[in-house]
Amino acid sequence: MDPTHPNSNSAGHVQFERESASVLSLKWSALHDAAQAVAAIAGADAGPLGAEVRNFPAAVRDAGNGQRARAEQGIEDLSALMEAGLAALLSAMGHEYQPRGAAQALWREFVLARDALLQIVSAGSSEPREVA
Questions:
Q1: CB 16 within 8 A of CB 129
Q2: Which of 119, 106, 107, 26 lies closest to 71 in space, CA to CA?
Q3: Organism's domain of life (predicted)?
Q4: For residues 124 and 86, what is the distance between their CA atoms, to the nearest angstrom?
Q5: Alpha carbon distances (Å) from 113 to 4, 22, 117
Q6: What is the C-alpha to C-alpha distance for residues 44 and 100, in angstroms, rounded to an integer?
Q7: Can you give the pLDDT at residue 64?
């Protein structure tokens, strides 16, 4: 890696671009907005987001390349699941069905998947950062 490249620091590590960090933060926030809607349909109390959840985009930014790639892919996958699931729930409601049970199942899956994503970064925190 060229240390004179604008996206490199003096050690030659590629810095996480601000645009990517902003996009990740927006996706993470939108994912939780969708989850709040699912929780409301499920009759579940989503509660406030804990510090680990709120700070996840920053933890991903600071993670090694491997953890960062897995976390970003996990967010994409979970977003696709939530988008399809929420659309199905809203469609059911539009047809005057009450999809509470389905919403509860989706809410549980979201929480499990989100917690698994959080573990990707925290479990890899002792892993050395990868050098490009």
A1: no
A2: 119
A3: Bacteria
A4: 31
A5: 39, 22, 6
A6: 10
A7: 87
pTM (whole model) above 0.90: no
Quickly count: other Cβ atoms within 10 Å of residue 18's Cβ: 9
Contact 60, 24 (CB under 8 A): yes
Check: CB of residue 49 under 8 Å from CB of residue 32.
yes
In Å, what is the CA distance from 31 to each residue of 9, 77, 86, 120?
Answer: 32, 11, 11, 17
Which residue in this structure is represented by tokens 């996840």? Answer: 56
Compare 36 and 121 and report the one with higher pLDDT. 36
Q: How confident is residue 19, by pLDDT bands cut at 50, 70 and 90?
A: low
pLDDT in tens, 26-63: 999 999 999 999 999 999 999 999 999 999 999 998 88
